[in-house]
Amino acid sequence: MTRLNDRALLRLLAAVGGPDLSGTRYRLVGKAGEGGVATVYVVEDTELQRRVALKILDLPDAATEERLRREAQVLARLEHPGIVPVHEVGTLPDGRVFYTMKWVQGDLFLQRPLKGIRQNGQGKDRGRIQRP
């Protein structure tokens, strides 16, 4: 068996365009976003007929897998209007750990205009964001 290095694996994952969801109850709808070690996809839960967010590690790594499982367990114990509920944690057919959570559709916080804040364009404070 030939092992792929991380860079080659990332290129292959990008070419495929999504995770292998065969044998699961999920159908890929689209990509919601990506971070340093994981990507979030929008998937259709075919059993419950609803859209959920699926967070999956980009590269299998035992330490990162354990952190993702702990993250899902902690989130699953929390109840707060600002925290989405976790529905399931598991392993995909390709061996990568994932969890699903409520999908909340909306715009990204960082894409919203900053209301009531202006940029100072004078002297040493130039470019800093200050309250009016």
Can you lay out the helices and strands and say which pair or pack?
Elements: H1 6-16, E1 26-34, E2 38-45, E3 50-57, H2 62-77, E4 86-91, E5 97-102, E6 118-119, E7 129-130
Antiparallel strand pairs: 1-2, 2-3, 3-5, 4-5, 6-7
CATH class: Alpha Beta
User: Sheet with the most strands?
Assistant: 5 strands, antiparallel
Spatial extent as radius of gyration: 19 Å
Q: What is the CATH superfamily?
A: Phosphorylase Kinase, domain 1
What proportion of the residues is helical, as a percent range? 10-25%
Class of secondary structure makeup: alpha+beta
Please give a structural write-up:
This protein has 132 residues and is α+β, with helices and mostly antiparallel strands. It has a single domain, classed as Phosphorylase Kinase, domain 1. It is 20% helix and 31% strand. It has helices at 6-16, 62-77; strands spanning 26-34, 38-45, 50-57, 86-91, 97-102, 118-119, 129-130. The strands form two sheets. Strands 1-2-3-5-4 form a five-stranded antiparallel beta sheet, with helices on one face. Strands 6-7 form a two-stranded antiparallel sheet. It is globular. The N and C termini lie far apart (62 Å). 15% of the residues are buried. The model has no long low-confidence stretch (mean pLDDT 81).
